[in-house]
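seq/struct pair 1
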Amino acid sequence: MKSFRRHSATVNAGSMADIAFLLLIFFLVTTTISADKGILRQLPGDCPPNEDCTKNIKERNLLHINLNSNQEIMVENNVVKLEEVEQLVKDFVDNNGSANCDYCEGLQLLESSEHPKNAVISLSHDALTKYELFIKVQDEITKAYYDLRKRYIQQKFKKSPHEVSNEELEIVKKAYPFIVSEVMVKPN
């Protein structure tokens, strides 16, 4: 009688390395790698010829925000929390100190800006300020302007910010221009 011995089945793995290599090449070729875009800021253009671009700004139209080396946020030399920055910027920009802004809802304080078109945010930071804090403060300033512009769009055009045309958006940007001066304070 014959004995039936079963041999274990084997898989020919000789070409596995070739297949893995081809799959690796396939995924490298077909995968898209996202590129970081960085911070989206539009730099000011060159000064037009025969024009003075170094105009004096009244002190009341300038909101000083300073980030020191202790990672503290100081607005007009008062230490504030990050969560307070947005409202402080809104109150300053929308103040209507000259009482000639028909769309402003500010308290017309004598120490805040005359008009949103004159308001300048001066953001200065120490060389030892952490990048994360600097970006967070910039975000709070941007949110303040976004909220002011959003309210203006709803009042004037009866639309949401995503529904306005490019021409309407330009009108909004002129009503609430985003003017921020960023300066690094060098250590002594």
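seq/struct pair 2
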Amino acid sequence: MRTEEYRTLVRLIRELASEVRTVKTGLDSKIDHVAKKVTEAFQGFGILDPEEETWTEQQVCERYHVSRRTMYEHRTNGRIAYIKTGSGRNCKVKYRKADVIEFFSVLNA
């Protein structure tokens, strides 16, 4: 390969690399924009809240207008996953937010 051909090849590779970086940067910014919009939409519906990963049984009952007895039946029949902290009658029952939303969306469908 002659020196002039080599220089031309190097120049073309650099131009191509520059164009790829420009396209990638543009695509990355579009992906970031879409991800931000989706996150905002989920937060608007109360799905994503970093402060609140779980709901207490009382919170679930209030949000979905069901009784504690109904939630107890769903738990004991294995229809919804739950987290039990403590033991005995004074234990706290919590539900993962994502599980509750999925459960009630399927239940009401």
